[in-house]
Amino acid sequence: MGTEHGRVLVTPAVKADKKAPKLSRPSKYQVYLLNDDYTPMDFVIVILQQFFAMSYPRAVNVMLEVHQNGKGICGIYTRDIAETKVAQVNEFARMNDHPLLCKMEKV
Questions:
Q1: Disulfide: which of 25, 71, 77, 89 matches 81 by Cβ 3.0-4.6 Å?
Q2: What are phi and psi of 37, to 5 degrees?
Q3: Closest among 103, 81, 80, 79 to 90, alpha carbons compared
Q4: Per-10-residue mean pLDDT, the chain, length 107
């Protein structure tokens, strides 16, 4: 260790030449519902409110999108959250004897 005008110079034990690893944003997945001829519209609204925290007017709009276009986007999430929501919705639909299907795809 040397001194410079009364101060002690300390050399680091680990070299700082290493570059920090480049981080990227996690991939996003859209979660959507598919239309069927048996699931009541009111049940779809309940799903959208309960699992996707939608207001009643927003849930009605998404439900109508599902009904008219065959598919309606519920939200965009990271993979883990999207997988969880898909599993929860599908399980809830089966528990209530509805064939409603929730899926996800990479955005």
A1: 77
A2: -90, 5
A3: 103
A4: 64 70 94 97 98 98 97 98 98 98 98
Cβ atoms of 29 and 88 within 8 Å: the answer is: no
Lookup result for tokens 């680091």: 12
> φ and ψ at 55, to 5 degrees?
-70, 165
Chain-centroid distance, C-alpha 93: 19
Joined together, the tokens standing for residue 12 give 């680091």
Please tell me whether the overall predicted TM-score, pTM, comes out greater than 0.70 for this model. yes
Helix (H, G, I), strand (E, B) or coil at 12: coil
* DSSP alpha helix (H) spans, the chain: 41-52, 56-69, 79-95
Strands 71-78, 101-106: pairing is unpaired
Contact 31, 103 (CB under 8 A): yes
Among 24, 19, 39, which residue's Cα sits nearest to residue 96?
39
Angle, CA 106 vertex, CA 104 and CA 107 arms, to 5°:
115
